[in-house]
């Protein structure tokens, strides 16, 4: 993040993008100017429209794979419109923080960051100002006719952000570089501005997540309790939505090791999964007998999803018969979600590979089924004996 952010005097702009790093001060001013306290935001009748817009923003990020709708019907030229748009964001953020649910947080942040990506990609007038709020610098070079602009960004920003995005465009070796500047030329059907906005989305996601985690840590239970109704509603919706989006496979879900389960769950919620996690997901799917098509289905909600790249990469893994990583490599690659005491099977010394976890679970399930069949047969037998006597 740049050490000094550009100051933004335009209130309509701040209302459209209240998540900007400069947004905290702006939201405080809006609250003060309108004589609103955080408690008013929760209960005052005249603020119902703000809460309703906040709920829509929140539900859209939970329900829509592509993030919240970038279009708003609120008139940002009026003071009421600016207040509604900016405070609805604050209300949604407070509900998310009061849930203390990191999955809900990730989902909401993904929705807001995707929305920002779309809006930044279209906002030619303010793009430089917006970009300078998230990256250390940016320069625009017009083409010879002065019609099209290509953006260049410092290599340090590119190197930090590009590993989080899949696709050849985002590898430094494929980007023109000059004197420490990386060329963000148009590609994959997007303009230079849209490509740069996609990169900035990664900073927005990180910045918003960090500031919400900080709020969550400071929030006490009595304050969080004030949001219990909307939290309950949105958490229920999230769990229903996740269940609906989860692709079911031939393998029984309860047998899945936590590392596989968490990779599938995170991708289906639009959370970025690192390279180790993606490779593991594909190779483990192969080892579990999941079809190539179903394995591709796990990636559909990934923030950087591209059907062609996914099909190609999964095909490579299935053709070359990659073996899934063991527990040690997954732990090193930050893809083992359990800590000692979380899962009794994972705590076993012999459990060195997720496939061992799967086999142990299946063995137990078959034993359990066999025992149930024996009990049922014995019950039937004794019933027959009773009847005949
Ligand atoms: S201990 Fe092994 S099987 Fe269990 S979650 Fe971690 S990586 Fe997966």
In words, what does this structure look like?
- The protein has 389 residues and is mainly α.
- The chain folds into two domains: 11-234, Transcription Elongation Factor S-II, Chain A (Up-down Bundle), CATH 1.20.930; 246-356.
- Helix content is 59%, strand content 4%.
- The protein has 17 helices and four strands.
- Strands 1-2-4-3 form a four-stranded antiparallel beta sheet.
- β1 (139-142) and β2 (149-154) form a beta hairpin.
- α5 (79-99) packs antiparallel against α6 (102-122), α5 (79-99) crosses α9 (192-218) and α5 crosses α11 (228-245).
- Residues 246-250 have low confidence and may be disordered.
Short synopsis of the structure:
The protein is mainly α.
Mean pLDDT, nearest integer? 85
- Could you tell me how far the N terminus lies from the C terminus, measured between alpha carbons in angstroms? 84 Å
Radius of gyration: 25 Å
* CATH class assignment of the largest domain: Mainly Alpha
One letter per element, helices H and strands E, the order comes to HHHHHHHEEHEEHHHHHHHHH
Largest sheet: spatial strand order = 1-2-4-3
Uncertain runs are: 246-250
> Per DSSP, what share of the residues sits in E-state strands of 2 or more residues?
under 5%
CATH topology of the largest domain, anyone?
Transcription Elongation Factor S-II, Chain A
**Which overall shape is indicated by the principal axes computed on the Cα atoms?**
globular
**What is the number of helices?**
17
Question: Percent helix among the residues?
Answer: 55-70%
**CATH level-two architecture of the largest domain:** Up-down Bundle
Q: Helix- and strand-based class? A: mainly alpha
Overall domain count: 2
């Amino acid at each position: 993040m740049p050490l000094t952010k550009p100051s933004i005097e335009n209130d309509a702009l701040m209302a459209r993008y209240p998540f900007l790093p400069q947004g905290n001060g702006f939201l405080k001013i809006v609250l003060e100017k309108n004589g609103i306290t955080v408690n008013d935001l929760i209960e005052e009748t005249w603020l119902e429209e703000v809460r309703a817009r906040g709920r829509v923003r929140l539900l859209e990020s939970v329900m829509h794979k592509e993030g919240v709708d970038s279009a708003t019907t609120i008139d940002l030229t009026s003071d009421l419109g600016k207040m509604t748009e900016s405070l609805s964001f604050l209300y949604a953020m407070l509900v998310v923080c009061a849930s203390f649910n990191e999955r809900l947080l990730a989902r909401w942040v993904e929705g807001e960051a995707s929305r920002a990506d779309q809006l930044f990609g279209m906002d030619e007038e303010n793009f430089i100002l917006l970009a300078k709020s998230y990256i250390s610098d940016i320069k625009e070079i017009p083409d010879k006719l002065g019609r099209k602009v290509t953006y260049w960004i410092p290599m340090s920003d590119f190197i930090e952000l590009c590993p989080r995005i899949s696709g050849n465009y985002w590898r430094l070796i494929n980007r023109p570089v000059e004197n420490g500047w990386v060329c963000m030329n148009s590609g994959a059907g997007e303009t230079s501005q849209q490509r740069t906005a996609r990169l900035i989305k990664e900073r927005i996601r990180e910045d918003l997540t960090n500031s919400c985690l900080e709020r969550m840590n400071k929030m006490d239970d009595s304050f969080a309790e004030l949001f219990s109704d909307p939290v309950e509603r949105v958490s229920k919706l999230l769990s229903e939505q996740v269940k609906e989006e989860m692709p079911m496979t031939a393998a029984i879900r309860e047998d899945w090791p936590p590392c596989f389960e968490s990779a599938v769950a995170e991708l289906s919620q639009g959370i970025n999964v690192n390279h180790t996690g993606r490779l593991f997901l594909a190779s483990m799917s192969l080892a579990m007998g999941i079809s190539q098509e179903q394995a591709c289905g796990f990636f559909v909600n990934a923030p950087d999803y591209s059907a062609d790249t996914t099909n190609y990469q999964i095909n490579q893994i299935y053709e070359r018969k990659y073996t899934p990583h063991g527990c040690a490599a997954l732990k090193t690659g930050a893809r083992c979600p359990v800590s000692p005491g979380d899962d009794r099977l994972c705590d076993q010394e012999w459990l060195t590979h997720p496939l061992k976890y799967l086999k142990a679970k299946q063995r137990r399930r078959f034993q359990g089924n066999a025992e149930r069949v024996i009990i049922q047969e014995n019950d039937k037998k004794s019933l027959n004996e009773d009847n005949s006597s």
